[in-house]
Design brief:
The protein has helices spanning about 20, 25-35, 45-50, 50-75, 90-105, 105-115; strands spanning about 10-15, 35-40. With about 130 residues, it is mainly α. The chain has a two-stranded parallel sheet.
Length: about 130
Amino acid sequence: MRRRMYDGERVMLTWDAFKGQTNDEVQDHIKKYYPLLDIVDIPACMTKYLQPLDLTVNKIFKQLYDDQYDEWFKNGQKFYTPSGYRQKPSYQLIMDFVVRAWEKVPADTVKLGFLQAGISNSMDGEEDNLVKF
């Protein structure tokens, strides 16, 4: 059974400085509905060092997704828009690509991202060598 993210214990969310999520309306909503959620804002230009998914997952995930898209395009009928561009896959097919790609990302890769960002390392210093910056 899948565990809910919010079961009465503190949860940490790291996100970048995108203005759409750091405005007062979003912040007030989070405080009201998720009082145990601790938000860590990653300063601009630092996501490549401090955002776990940027460190380890995104490249693998994107490659797995692109492989499926390429296979779909190579083996399917090739439809083009009136202006000559390739027709995009349906939203359902895109979601299927996303789900299959995510299922293939090894859990250890996700964990390594948190270690390399220095977010979940042991407090005794044993994993400090994994931090990437």
